[in-house]
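Hello again,

I reread your note about wanting to compare the complex against the isolated chains. To keep things tidy I'm splitting this into two emails, and this first one only covers the full assembly. Below are the input lines as submitted, including protein chains and any nucleic acid or small-molecule components. They are followed by the predicted structure of everything together. The single-chain runs will come separately.
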Amino acid sequence: MTGSAAAVDRRATAIEHRIATEGLTKVYPGGLRAVDGLDLRVRGGEIFGLLGPNGAGKTTTIGMLTTRVVPTGGVALVDGIDVSADPVAVKRRIGVVPQTNTLDRSLSVRENLLFHCRYFGMSGSQARARADELLGRFRLAERGDAKVETLSGGMAQRLMVARALAHAPAVLFLDEPTTGLDPQSRLALWELLGELHAEGQTILLTTHAMDEADRLCERVAIMDAGRILALGSPSELKRSLEAETIVTMQADGDLEVLAAALGDVPGVTSTDVHDGAVRAFAGRVAGLLPRLVLRAERAGTTVTDVSVTEPTLETVFIALTGKDLRE
Amino acid sequence: MSRRPVEAPRATALAAFAGLLLRDLRVVTNERGRFLLRTLSQPLLLVFVFTYVFPKIGQGFRAPAGDESFTTVLVPGVIAIAVLIKGIQAVALPLVQEFGYTSEIEDRVMAPLPVWAVAVEKIVAGAVQGLIAALLVFPIAAVVPAEPAALQISWPALVVVGLLAPFAASALGLALGTMVEPNQVPLMFSVVILPITFLGATYYPWARLDAIPWLQAVTLLNPLVYMAEGYRMALTPQIGHMPGVAIYAALVAFPVGMGVLGVRGFRRRVLS
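Full-complex prediction:
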């Protein structure tokens, strides 16, 4: 995009969107197309999730938006600023919680916050006040003088979030924030991100956990192989399956035959064979289950197990790609 | 928590640079015991063995010129070694770790300044520590030897060399730190650091190598030669030293060259 019209357009987009990308592409030397023509818009105050398996391009996308990865094509604006043209101005406006623990191991918990504030231009007294405020809010006050190596995983993660927020960034980026956390810390982090969202913080996070995206995010972009496959609110994405119920049936016999047979049952919108079982996607129809079992018996198979679930983002992902998120 | 408690008008690159520098100096004061040990052990041992033990047991080296003591030859060299080693300790080794296992550098480069400036800050922080090392080692070199050094201090030369030499050391530290992987550190010591320290005109004035012309020529590539000769020119000029012009030129060219190399390497490591 060049020319003044495009620049005006960009400006206009920026007012509405804290993050805007057009055709954003990263091809690594060697030819790996990690991100391929990404168009993304994240509104101010939104909590937005990039959901996809490892290698989908989520981390590369965050890398480009946070100035660490140099795009090879397209445009990315953060808070209206082109990440390629003025990376320093972008860095001033973002807070980043990377996938790995990047806390300053040579400093104490408190000093980690203190010096981060100094990097972002606060005076000594401003930095001290801000560090204390954050220690209190993130329940780290008692550990202020501790070495960061002594923190538990959950505490270290809280400190990383506190540090990323210390300079009140326009956008908070979190790359796989709950990977490696124990269930309790995971819940606590979800709660914290919920609070930040309620305060109006714009958040972009990546995850390969469907439940995380489902529970936390207002909108989710499902990514695979560097592209966005679907984008919308979790409920929109689940509705896109046109199924309110998914019946998963295990049976002895030819599963392909069974899948075809179940497809005839009224109310069933589609069927497939997945992971050694037949899945029937259906609307909310009374008496569906007995009819399915009956149809299966008539098709010459013996049903060994039946489960009924509602669609999840994982089933959406599987429907889109034919593979599991964990693959 | 208010959304924008400190709208940071001072979030300039300069403030970020100063913040990073403050951080590096805080690490020094937090770890002052270790800093002292790391800084002093090698110079102390060198001075002790060569200028205390050797004379005491009647084994020793003579100074090349007339009746000067070996102490007088060694003192500038010991200071130069201390400064060089500090460049490795303060810049190269932490960087190898931060690039390697801790990925801490990822946080540092998110500070609001250009990536090249983060690398330059490393050079400056290392140079400050090199200067501190020189100041710490100087008294040892003056007190420990059995025979005192005959110092004829040229203050202007001392100020200029004293400021330039630490930059040469920490620029070398930056270049090495961006090139070396954690598992290559022992190799770096055997292949780079040891040859530099042993062949750095620290135990003899460079001019005396005229007896071994090839070595005299090859060691012109060694930054420590110019550092040691620089301190020699500033502290013990009576021993003889390289022409001042050559020393100053090398002590400017070397940090610039290594600095460019180091900044390039740094950018390559943090940006993809």
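For quick reference: The longest helix of chain A spans residues 183-198.

B.
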